[in-house]
Fold this sequence. Notes:
- The structure is a homodimer.
- By secondary structure, chain A is α/β, with parallel strands linked by helices.
- Chain A is about 30% helix and about 25% strand.
- In chain A, a hairpin with a 2-residue loop joins β10 and β11 (about 210-215).
Amino acid sequence: KEKGESVSNETCLSVAGGPVAVPTTEQRYKTYMAPGSSSEKKTDDGHASKENFIHLCNPHLEKMKEDILYHFALGTGTHDFPTLFGDVKFVCVGGSPSRMKAFIAYIAEELGLGSPGCDYPNICAGTDRYAMYKVGPVLSVSHGMGIPSISIMLHELIKLLYHAKCSDITIIRIGTSGGIGLEPGSVVITRQSVDATFKPQLEQVVLGKTVIRSTNLDEQLAKELMQCSKEIGQFNTVIGNTMCTLDFYEGQGRLDGAICLYDEEEKLQYLKNAYESGVRNIEMESSVFAAMCNLSGVKAAVVCVTLLNRLEGDQITSSHDVLVEYQQRPQKLVGYFIKKSLGKV
Amino acid sequence: KEKGESVSNETCLSVAGGPVAVPTTEQRYKTYMAPGSSSEKKTDDGHASKENFIHLCNPHLEKMKEDILYHFALGTGTHDFPTLFGDVKFVCVGGSPSRMKAFIAYIAEELGLGSPGCDYPNICAGTDRYAMYKVGPVLSVSHGMGIPSISIMLHELIKLLYHAKCSDITIIRIGTSGGIGLEPGSVVITRQSVDATFKPQLEQVVLGKTVIRSTNLDEQLAKELMQCSKEIGQFNTVIGNTMCTLDFYEGQGRLDGAICLYDEEEKLQYLKNAYESGVRNIEMESSVFAAMCNLSGVKAAVVCVTLLNRLEGDQITSSHDVLVEYQQRPQKLVGYFIKKSLGKV
């Protein structure tokens, strides 16, 4: 295996945001709900903003007559993507299908676009791989657990947004995680997603060769989300690094898996090293999420609640009701952010 | 990152089958349905067989008062595992929850343990991470997509079987895959699970260090399954190597993902190299499945149908009905194997 051999033509990285001053999400979207949009928009604040389309890092797709998004059970030959999804501006993704269904009902009510008790159909009803819901400019999609599962979903989601000719997309992962040195229930907005050796990178194997990709996330978006949390003022929120692992048990230093060949001292030393390097929580999807959004030129953020403090244990022992309330916190924060971005706060 | 540094005390590997001649699955299980089992059983053929319990490679678990299997929504403090699961002998796992539900209905009918149209409750109804169904000695569990997702499930499944004091477990993954050089619809029984560089190993990161684990599967079980396929005689089945990747698009050399920075020639060369090394299909779970079953001393096999021939394309274009029939083939094969093992053929 050729370690560190990087694919030389990954020029797509250059599209992931430039050094120029960009308008805030609020400035960008405030007028979204108003009719009559053009490709050169002026916001309330007089900022001229050029629409930012999805950057597809794949020249082969243009040559395809039809594109079947197999794991969504959707295809360009059978579905009119611009009509179905063209108005999407915010995409929220999370592991659990039922949580993403709950989110769409929540955001619909928050934006005044739904009625209580209204049922939202699963757009991916033709498969049980992922679930997808939509209301107004918000798409909510489940991604299962782990890097491979979210990566399949993101490949097809990015193509969906591209085929639908969407622009100015903000995509946020709302999830659960294990915290390090934080009171359970705290929310972490990810500064950088780091790997199990605390490096802000993702190793992928492409045609048998290892490729290293950057896992940076949008700094301004993280700050805007932090500001939203301050305005809500209901739970502890921090900006910190998020460690993304390939395994929940051994990969995160747990002592309670079916396999564990290290002792408690080694585990705690590892978690303390993680904390010292800036890691505040651990989950299993953020690195490939950041890497793929980077390559596709999409603004992205990761907002996860911590279900426990890993310095104090491995098992999630809080009551069902407490966990349910914790899991609503990222939804609440991102819901508020979307409302504010649309000028509805 | 210390590459190739192996955790030195992985002695559990020694439990994964010995060089001694073992009875076939049929010899072992034939009398299972008969009452009065003892820990030193005699089969019809006069083989004395010692019960083979789950080998738990984790000394910490013994010290825990309660074990919560969070992603199953089950716990030793709230559920009586020996009563609920003590009679399990066969565990079938697969990615899709609806497919695993269909399998339990199918096997129930095959074993004469259910009635047509009977509904089987989801044992993991308290969560939407995984689905689990049981009928008689057969447990059917979904695992989602990718190594991390199946690994969480397997940690909790192995602990479940251990807590339930199960013995003589055979666990089979029934799944879908992309074939190489095979007619679509062919079934591949995995000889060895190999990584994206065609090596029969799994790299895992434990406490930040890379550990290499063996991904061998039970040879005798693979042969028995092959014999079953011959007896059924309804579809093409081969024994071959299975490549296990972390990504469906770039990781498998597809040209139709959101990101693709290589050309068709490079892709085909990679797939041809895979074929020459013995790879006949590609999926995303077999390596960690083999590694964890090895470490836990559980007989394991992987039986996947191929939905397309990757030398001829990347998109799964067969009609829904054809794909449904393909997906039933591993179920049919494993269903027949279980029936035969229980002396019911």
